[in-house]
Each structure stands twice: as C-alpha cells, then as structure tokens.
Amino acid sequence: MRGLIVKGIGGFYYVHTDEGIIEAKGRGIFKKDGITLCVGDEVEISIIDEANSKGVIEKILPRKNCFIRPPIANVDSFIVVFAAASPAPNFPVIDKFLVNAERHGIEPIICINKKDLVSEEILGKLCDIYKDAYQVIAVSTITGDGLTELKKLIKGKKAALAGPSGVGKSSILNQLHPDANMETGEVSKKTDRGKHTTRHVEIFQADHGGMIYDTPGFTSFEMPDDIELFDLKDYYPEFGRYNGECKFDNCNHIKEPECAVRKAVKNGEIHLIRYKAYLANFEEIKQNSKY
Q: pLDDT above 90 covers what percent of the chain?
C-alpha cells in the first residue's frame, strides 16, 4: 500500500492512504542505513494491525528533495516570509533562504507579512527589492489582505513556510488552513524575535488546494556547506541577465573592473539592497572556507 507521510512525532509516522490514516514505524533498515523518514515522503507500507490502523513503512519512493532539519521531503515551493516591520527585515538572512531554495530546486515565493504596519510607499520599496527575481506577495494576517492570492500561488503544490523567527509564519499557516489550530507566540519586546511554538512536523491540506508544511526548523539557515564561493552568484537570478557581459568570464561581481553586474547596480537595474546582501553572504562563505 502506498501513502504520504503527513506527520512525524516521537518516532511514529502518520501515513495518509486510500484506506485512511495509518500509524506506522519505519523498518530498522532505515536507521541502520542512516536514512531519516520525512514528512512529505511517498512511501510503501504494510499493515500489521488492520483493526487499529497500524503498519510498517517498507520503502521510500524517490524524492525530489529533502531536508534533515526539519525532516521534510518533496517540497515544491518555499514561501520565504519576512515582516515589513517588527522585526525589521534582515536581507542577508532572507537571501540564505532563497539560495537554499535555489540549491534544492525549489521555487521561492517572497511573502512580506505585516503589511498593515507600514505605509504603501515603504511596502512598495520592499517589494521592489525582489520583483525582478521572484514572485512577491504582501499579506496581513490581521486584515486578510493578500491571503487569497497566496492560496492561489500554492494551489497544487507542496509548500513550506520559511523565514526568521517572529515574522508570523504560524499566523499565516492558521489562515491557509484554520483547522491547523497552531499556537502562535507573541513577539518578545526585549529581543524582537518570536517565541517558537511549533513542536512537531506536519503537512496540512490548504484551502483552495495544495499542501503546506508546518515545520519547527525553518527559522534560520546557513549557506549550504557544499556551495562553492565562486558559485554563489549563480543563485542570484538577477545577475544571470548579465552573463557574458563582464570583462572577465570568471567575474564574481565584487571588485573586478568592467563588471556588468556592478554597473547594473549603479544604474538601478539590480537593487542595491539585494547586491549588498550578496556581498555579505559572499564574505561569510569566504570566512568559513579555505579561500
């Protein structure tokens, strides 16, 4: 029997099948081989107790992608959430989520939450930072603005909310699927960060179709360990428009002369904030590597 792991907690996995939800554990071979079962995995299971809907996971079907922290697989879209205010956006951190999405072949969607806290002018400036690279949507879980459009964007997809603590990911999840009944934490006035309240990994059917992961782990990201310093530029879609236009084929768009990307930044064709975030992440990888 085939099914989808929709929840994992305490070593037990809840698998959605045509026969309903089956509570299952994985075969010992998974642990022996160092394989982590993930929410979002398509699996084959055998039933060991039909009366009590219990089974054993026998096999994991091929994955599109997977993460170990948190343990989720087959993500189609990252909804990269940051707040328009409270807390203020940290653009290099936001870019880490975007680079990780690109690295795993996942479609990033920029979601600016708490639009009700800022003016239309400020909101427009925030949207402008990413508009040439990604789908951008602004929402408010207080007024409901933008949420219908967000639901349409994830229709038919498995989407994960990712972003810094305190930006309102759980509140957005509650709006996308009210039955999730997520606890939400107030933003700490002292630290301006959210109190983490999510305790396990689960995937919910969202309104208007699609599925959305509730995860406790996508509040921070480091750059992938296997990303090469000189490949970072390839994960900034705006830079790709200028391929072949720099003086040097191996230009990293840092200090090289006659750099088309730096010229585009100067001319306002690439947003300065986005470029500064690239510089910050380039320097971080440089400091943490052999270069």
A: 72
Distances (CA, A) of 56 to 61, 73, 189, 194, 261: 15, 19, 46, 37, 53
Residues in the chain: 291
Q: DSSP states of 72-83 as a string?
A: EE---EEEEEEE
Tokens read off for 158:
């498995």
Q: Where are the alpha helices (DSSP H) in 60-146?
A: 91-103, 120-130
Distance set, CA 120 to CA 87, 113, 126, 273, 277 (Å): 18, 13, 10, 19, 24
268 contacts 132 by C-beta, under 8 angstroms? no
Classify the phi-psi angles of 156: left when phi > 0, otherwise alpha if psi is within -120 to 50, otherwise beta.
left
Higher pLDDT, residue 86 or 182? 86
d(CA 216, CA 26): 22
Q: Is 283 in a helix, a strand, or coil?
A: helix
Q: With beta carbons less than 8 A apart as the criterion, state whether 147 and 139 touch.
A: yes
Q: How far from the centroid of its chain's Cα atoms is residue 116's Cα?
A: 23
Strand partners, 22: 15
